[in-house]
């Protein structure tokens, strides 16, 4: 007896499995259970903070609208440089300690607005940290010794005594001149007379730009910061100061950004965040309560299974 072979089943189109997953009728019990659990969880989350709605999302809440708006407009985003793996972004950095950062900002805001006068006040720092990234950097020990030398000049008379010796060289006949010369760092002392005189003028201009109130230790904080910075970061900070705008509004805007974000906005790939919340725009307490109540009602409808094709999307948007 012979049997006729069963013909092979026709090949299913590649898209059929995808269509069956989404559109083939199935028992909705499992999906309904997932919907109810999701609705209860979301309802609990949004119901829990209802009493503290203003504290969480109000205009003057713990995270105020002013801070949110500033981050939405100013938050920096950085991109790693392309090229060698060793390439790194060098940021302009201030101290993370508030009292030290305040001292540094006082120093920056006190710099002359005129570019020429500012360059003169920063001439010593530009010698210790040349703004040109390709320029050779002085030895870190020399930088520390020079800044320590400036720190010890606590009064104007003391400063003038030291700089007179630095500019003219030690006069053996002058009382104490030898000691003053020995206290001068080798980076300043071992120079030709003309260079020593120029360096004395640079030290004087830098000393005049530093905070004057010794009791607050602001001068110490400023000098310590320049001493402790890595060479490349010190170089970036000096370049930042030299390139400050002459325009008062532009200058203050750049300084305010540095004070808040501890960085130079010119180094960012972009500033601002792509974020949205209804609370960015609805700030009246009564209106906020109505919007929040509407969100809770939609979540309840979704949990009960009413108009889920609409309420499911609304719940997702609300969350």
Descriptive report:
The chain is an all-alpha fold. Helix content is about 60%, strand content about 0%. It contains 17 helices and two strands. A two-stranded antiparallel sheet has the order 1-2. The longest helix is centred in the N-terminal third of the chain and has 20 residues, at about 30-50. The radius of gyration is 34 Å and the shape is elongated. Mean pLDDT is about 85; it is low at about 170-175.
**Quantity of strands, as a count:** 2
Query: Which of globular, elongated, flat, extended, rod-shaped describes the shape?
Result: elongated
Tally of DSSP helical segments: 17
Unreliable parts = 172-176
Spatial gap, N to C terminus: 70 Å
Radius of gyration: 34 Å
H and E order: HHHHEHHHHHHHHHHHEHH
The mean pLDDT is 86
Q: What order do the strands of the largest sheet run in, or round the barrel if closed?
A: 1-2
What summary fits the major beta sheet?
2 strands, antiparallel
Strand residues, percent: under 5%
Helix percent band: 55-70%
Structural class: mainly alpha
Key structural traits:
two-stranded antiparallel sheet; 319 residues; mainly alpha; 17 helices; 2 strands
């Amino acid at each position: 007896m012979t049997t006729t072979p069963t013909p092979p089943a026709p090949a299913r189109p590649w898209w059929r499995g995808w269509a069956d997953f989404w559109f083939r009728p199935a028992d909705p019990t499992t999906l309904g259970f997932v919907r109810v659990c999701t609705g209860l969880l979301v309802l609990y989350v949004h119901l829990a903070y209802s009493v503290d709605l203003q504290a969480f999302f109000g205009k003057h809440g713990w995270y105020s609208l002013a801070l949110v708006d500033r981050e939405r407009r100013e938050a920096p985003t950085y991109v790693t440089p392309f090229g060698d793996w060793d390439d790194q972004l060098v940021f302009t950095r201030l101290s993370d300690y508030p009292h030290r950062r305040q001292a540094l900002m006082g120093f920056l805001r006190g710099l002359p607005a005129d570019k020429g006068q500012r360059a003169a006040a920063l001439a010593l720092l530009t010698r210790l940290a040349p703004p040109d990234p390709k320029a050779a950097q002085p030895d870190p020990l020399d930088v520390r010794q020079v800044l320590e030398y400036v720190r010890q000049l606590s009064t104007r008379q003391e400063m003038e005594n030291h700089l007179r010796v630095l500019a003219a060289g030690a006069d053996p006949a002058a009382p104490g001149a030898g000691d003053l010369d020995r206290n001068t760092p080798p980076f300043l002392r071992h120079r030709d007379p003309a260079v020593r005189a120029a360096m004395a003028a640079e030290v004087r201009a830098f000393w005049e730009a530093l905070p004057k109130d010794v009791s607050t230790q602001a001068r110490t904080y400023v000098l310590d910061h320049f001493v402790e910075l890595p060479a490349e970061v010190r170089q970036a900070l000096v370049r930042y100061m030299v390139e400050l705008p002459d325009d008062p509004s532009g200058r203050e805007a750049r300084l305010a950004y540095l004070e808040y974000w501890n960085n130079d906005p010119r180094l960012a790939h972009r500033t601002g965040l792509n974020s949205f919340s209804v609370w960015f725009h609805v700030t009246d307490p009564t209106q906020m309560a109505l919007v929040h109540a509407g969100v809770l009602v939609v979540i309840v409808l979704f949990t009960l299974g009413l108009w889920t094709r609409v309420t499911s999307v609304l719940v997702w948007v609300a969350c």
